[in-house]
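Standup notes
- DV: blocked on the single-chain target, sequence here:
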Amino acid sequence: MKKTIYLFLILISFQNCNGQSKCSDLKNGKFELKSETGITIIERNGNIQIEKKDGLNYYSDVEWITDCKYELKNHRNHYGELEKEELNSIYTVEIIKIMTDSVKIKTTANYSNKSLERILKIIELK
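- DV (later): unblocked, structure below
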């Protein structure tokens, strides 16, 4: 019985030390999103997210709701100006699954019933 408990404790400690990230580790970092329209690099630093695509940067404010869910608001274009068509848009992103080198997310918007699931490749965590 003692061996079983000891083995169980060893397995748990390996699970916690295997380098697996948790949601809070993803608050700051660099990610890659591949889609039908190409590759977007996403950088999250503090309360700002920058999406880089085709030589242009797009900015959003990040508000964390929980460790695994955040909202993107106040979307700004390459020049830092508020995007008129995105003025009241709020995107809610939920981290569904964390893998060794990627993250599965689900995104919803306040103007639609639809959701979109995507895989983000983890480039760097800060």
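- Follow-up: The two ends are 42 Å apart (CA to CA).
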